[in-house]
Design brief:
Radius of gyration of chain A: 17 Å
Oligomer: heterodimer
CATH class of chain B: Alpha Beta
Order of helices and strands of chain B: HEHEHEHEHEEEEEHEE
Helix content of chain B: 10-25%
CATH superfamily of chain B: Glutaconate Coenzyme A-transferase
Structural class of chain A: alpha/beta
CATH topology of chain B: Glutaconate Coenzyme A-transferase
CATH class of chain A: Alpha Beta
Helix content of chain A: 10-25%
CATH superfamily of chain A: Glutaconate Coenzyme A-transferase
Number of helices of chain A: 4
Number of domains of chain A: 1
Radius of gyration of chain B: 18 Å
Structural class of chain B: alpha/beta
CATH architecture of chain B: 3-Layer(aba) Sandwich
Strand content of chain A: 25-35%
CATH topology of chain A: Glutaconate Coenzyme A-transferase
Number of domains of chain B: 1
Number of helices of chain B: 6
Number of strands of chain B: 11
Number of strands of chain A: 14
Chain lengths: 224, 229
């Protein structure tokens, strides 16, 4: 495998995902890495963010020292409301999720299987997990994008032929954005869409637990 | 007109008894009825089934309720947060039971109870550990898990403004579970920041109609997490 220092940063992955979020989409962002995405949405593109604790039109965090403790994200951080945003209660918020109003959810993951199975709520050795809204959102969103490191800290593949971790939702992931690659999950298997600069398709395949189609692989454009 | 205004916490919480199932509103630090929670702790009730999103922070609020021995079982969505160490200690010591429920399912189970329905079918959790032992029905080729209503003896909620009929409006994302829980209990107590006169709340923007509120207790403004240590 190539040098670790060639891995994309969290912000570079976020920029990759942001480029694929389309005008007029309503998007739910999971806690952790996905919260970096809004910064990278082009100004002329109207992407609205949903936070499952009852915000449609979540804006960026307030300036330091500003903000309202009654206006927080699902990750419990202070946020703002965009002009034209709305507050809803919890069942309306999850009606948005399950009812097909989320154009996309961007979530972290422990493991993604070649059939689109998403595992992100509990580790296998734990007898319980913090599910939060992950299962509802993953089951209901029109598309689920996963944003994660390509391998575990130990170097094991997180993209696998068949999941070995507890399931969050089956057959839901459509794209995976990692620090090495962008991969589409299709009925015909995994397609390697793009690799990070200074990596090859072979480098990515070597740390991926399922076969990748590599017929038409682009290089991820990274801001200087 | 029925007097719903409780002058004291004891008066507000008169329905909270040993063994009760108690819903507590809030998500993170927003919309948590902190005075009512402290009132429950002070009453020294035992054996409560507590239904709420989080598992408490530090030693105050919900954590205090658990630490002081009020809670036999916690039903929540996100138990394993770093700040919920009081819950973890009790759980590891076998002193508290836990039921983890997906967040949308938890909300809908309470809404269903409040709406007088016998359950609902959800695509959430199909094929997962959290659907184990539950019926799965196939509707138009898609699988759904049967979830049952979650009705409680008492709901403790927080709202922004109340009028003497018990009509409520909320503040920003502090709304969260509160309007749902208000519907799902035999006895609903609202902790409110401010009381206004009849007619001062625009009927078009009332979120919870007073019919769902039995008692309310007025606190004035305070900072979320006021008792945090």
């Amino acid at each position: 495998m190539s040098d670790q220092s060639n891995l994309l940063t969290r912000d570079q992955i976020a920029a990759c995902v942001a480029a694929d979020l389309e005008d007029n989409w309503l998007v739910n962002l999971g806690i952790g890495m996905p919260t970096l995405i809004p910064t990278y949405i082009p100004q002329d593109r109207d992407v609205m963010f949903h936070s499952e604790n009852g915000i449609v039109g979540m804006g960026p965090p307030p300036e330091a020292g500003e903000g309202d403790p009654d206006l927080i994200s699902a990750g419990k951080g202070l946020v703002t409301l965009i002009p034209g945003g709305a507050y809803v209660h919890h069942t309306d918020s999850f009606a948005i999720a399950r009812g097909g109003r989320l154009d996309c959810a961007v979530l972290g993951a422990f493991q993604v299987a070649a059939n689109g199975d998403l595992c992100n709520w509990r580790l296998p050795h734990q007898n319980s997990g913090s599910v939060g809204g992950a299962m509802d959102i993953a089951a209901g969103a029109k598309r689920v994008f996963v944003m994660m490191t390509h391998t575990t800290r130990e170097g094991d593949a997180k993209i696998v032929a068949e999941r070995t971790y507890p399931l969050t939702a089956g057959h839901v992931v459509s794209k995976v954005y990692t620090d090495m690659a962008v991969i589409s999950v299709t009925a015909d298997g995994l397609i390697l869409d793009a690799v990070a600069p200074r990596f090859t398709a072979d480098d990515v395949q070597a740390v991926t637990g399922a076969p990748l189609s590599t017929g038409n692989v682009a290089t991820i454009e990274v801001a200087a | 007109m029925k007097n719903k205004h409780a002058e004291t916490l004891d008066d507000a919480l008169a329905g909270v008894e040993d063994g009760a199932t108690v819903l507590v509103g809030g998500f993170g630090g927003a919309g948590v009825p902190e005075f009512l929670i402290d009132g429950v702790c002070d009453r020294g009730v035992r054996g409560i089934t507590l239904v709420t999103n989080n598992a408490g922070t530090g030693h105050s609020g919900l954590a205090r309720m658990m630490e002081s021995g009020c809670v036999a079982k916690l039903v929540c969505t996100f138990p394993w947060a770093k700040e919920s160490f009081v819950f973890k200690e009790l759980y590891d010591a076998g002193k508290i039971e836990l039921e983890v429920v997906p967040q949308g399912t938890l909300a809908e189970r309470m809404r269903t109870a409040g709406a007088g329905l016998g359950g609902f079918l959800t695509p959430t959790a199909v094929g997962t550990d959290l659907a184990e032992g539950k019926q799965v029905h196939t509707i138009d080729g898609k699988d759904y898990v049967l979830e049952l209503p979650l009705r409680a003896d008492v709901a403790l909620i927080k709202a922004y403004k109340v009028d003497p009929r018990g009509n409520l409006i909320y503040h920003k994302s502090a709304r969260n579970f509160n309007p749902i829980m208000a519907m799902a209990a035999d006895h609903t107590v609202a902790e409110v920041t401010e009381q206004v006169a009849i007619g001062d709340l625009d009927p078009e923007i009332i979120v919870t109609a007073g019919v769902f509120v039995d008692r309310y207790f007025v606190t004035g403004p305070y900072e979320n997490g006021r008792g945090q240590i």
